[in-house]
Structures are given as C-alpha cells and as structure tokens.
Design goal:
The complex is a heterodimer of chains A (about 120) and B (about 110).
Chain A (H helix, E strand, L loop, with lengths): L4 E3 L2 E4 L5 E6 L6 E7 L6 E7 L2 E4 L8 E4 L6 E5 L8 E8 L11 E2 L3 E5 L1
Parallel strand pairs in A: 2-11
Antiparallel strand pairs in A: 1-3, 3-8, 4-5, 4-9, 5-6, 7-8, 9-10, 9-11
Chain B lengths: L2 E4 L4 E4 L4 E3 L1 E4 L6 E6 L5 E7 L5 E4 L2 E4 L9 E3 L8 E8 L6 E3 L3 E6 L1
Parallel strand pairs in B: 2-12
Antiparallel strand pairs in B: 1-4, 3-9, 5-6, 5-10, 7-8, 8-9, 10-11, 10-12
Classes of the chains: A mainly beta (about 120), B mainly beta (about 110).
Chain lengths: ~120, ~110
C-alpha cells in the first residue's frame, strides 16, 4: 500500500514570496490533515479536511495560509506572502476517518521542509 | 484544552540500557494516547497507542500504559539499540474529530 506522498521535499524562498505544497493521501482515506512542525517543537494542526470539507481550521493563519482539497483526494497548502517565522516542516497526514477509534489512526508523509530567508 | 507535556531531551544512552521517556497529559473526557517516532530524514510513524485507561500499548519492545490516575503515558524499553535513535513524540486526540495534539518531542541517541 502506497503511503502519503508529499512534494516538494525541500523549498527555499525569500520572505514575501509565495509557496505551495502538495499532498496525496493514502487511497480511500477520507480525512486529511496539514500540520506545521517548527524546529524543536511537536507538530501543530493547521487544518483538517473530511472528504473535501473543512472540519477544523481554527489554527490556520488565514491572512496568509490557504488550503484546498478538490474532489476529496489531493490537497494543496499555500502560503502567500511568506514570513521568516513560517520556516518549518509541513506535514500531511491521512486517516480513514469513517468512524470508530481505529479509523482515526493517522499516517504521515515525509514532510516538506520550508526555509524562508 | 487538551495538552501534552513530555520530558525534554536530548537523552543519551548506551546500547542495552533501560529507557524511560515521561509523558503527562491534561484532557477533558477520555482521549486516546499515542507515541510517534521520527527517524532521521523520515516522517512520523505510529509506534504504539492506547485507547482507554489501563490499556498497555506495545511495539518493537517499547511499552506504555495509559494511567488515568496519574494522567501519564510513559514510554519504556528494557534494552535500547543504536537503531532506536530517533525523536519520540507523545500525543493525544484533541477532540471528537480525531486530530492530534503533540508534545515537543524527546530526542534519543543510543551509543554503541
């Protein structure tokens, strides 16, 4: 079974530029998560999708971050304009999310390491 | 809201030493508890989990018991190997939709 795919793996941009990350979840997984992991900290949830609807985006900085999940499969996360403090690893995860505790088990992609200079 | 506190690292051990990484939590309701591991250059992997009080999760020689009375979920291994060198994250479910709240992580280095 293929895992969660993310691209690019690394990205370096200057502040005020824009950047986009892509995630392809495990086939059949209804729930998709984007996390931000700043160096030395644990991942923090940015946004959670159930199919193509947003379940939780309470910690997404909506003035600069946006995300979409068209057709309930792939997802993109965009930052525009980027700030220095956005330097982090952006993790995508997916889960079955169809009900019951086991369906909430999350599988993580390798992440995209963003450096903003 | 729910939160996790885990011991700060880094932790450096010799091969075959006993490992304990402390994790305590604050939560309303009855969250599920997890340990995730992140090997160098790789993504997060689920190591073990427990879904109710007194449950013991185990995998690859690691164990953790869900202790409701002490709100703890300490990770233990009797004999660590060099290949266990990684960052370990304690986590719990944050709400009804299954999102996770993570601790800051503990880096473990095992020397031969």
């Amino acid at each position: 079974e293929a895992g969660v795919a993310q691209s690019p793996r690394y990205k370096i941009i200057e502040k005020r530029q824009s950047v986009a990350f892509w995630c392809n979840p495990i086939s059949g997984h209804a729930t998709l998560y984007w996390y931000q992991q700043i160096l030395g900290q644990g991942p923090k949830l940015l946004i959670q999708f159930q199919n193509n609807g947003v379940v939780d985006d309470s910690q997404l900085p909506k003035d600069r971050f946006s995300a979409e999940r068209l057709k309930g499969v792939d997802s993109t996360l965009k930052i525009q304009p980027a700030k220095l403090e956005d330097s982090a690893v952006y993790l995508c995860a997916s889960s079955l999310g169809t009900g019951g505790l086991a369906s909430y088990e999350q599988y993580f992609g390798p992440g995209t390491r963003l450096t903003v200079t | 809201g729910n939160s996790v506190t885990q011991m700060e690292g880094p932790v450096t051990l010799s091969e075959e030493a006993f490992l304990t990484i402390n994790c305590t939590y604050t939560a309303t309701g009855y969250p599920s508890l997890f340990w995730y591991v992140q090997y160098p250059g790789e993504g997060l992997q689920l190591l073990l989990k427990a879904t109710k009080a007194d449950d013991k999760g185990s995998n690859k020689g690691f164990e953790a018991t869900y202790r409701k009375e002490t709100t703890s979920f300490h990770l233990e291994k009797g004999s660590v190997q060099v290949s266990d060198s990684a960052v370990y994250f304690c986590a719990l479910t944050g709400g009804s939709q299954g999102n996770l709240i993570f601790g800051k992580g503990t880096k473990l280095s095992v020397k031969p």
